[in-house]
User: Fold this.
Amino acid sequence: GTPGVSSVHCELKNIGGALQIIDRGSAYGTFLSSGERLPANLPRMLQIGDVFYLATPSQTFQVTGGPR
Assistant:
């Protein structure tokens, strides 16, 4: 229900314990905290502590450690 964020905006995958993000062609974009817009359908690995946002910085997420 957030303007600019689509129902299939991006995808997060666990690849061997590492987190991968893929923008799925969203109109308003998926961005790293630096403001870099991720190209559509190009996987990018994320590390613990990395920050990304969907469409606007008000939709920010930070990668944290998983269950132990």
User: Anything to note?
Assistant: The chain has a mean pLDDT of 91.
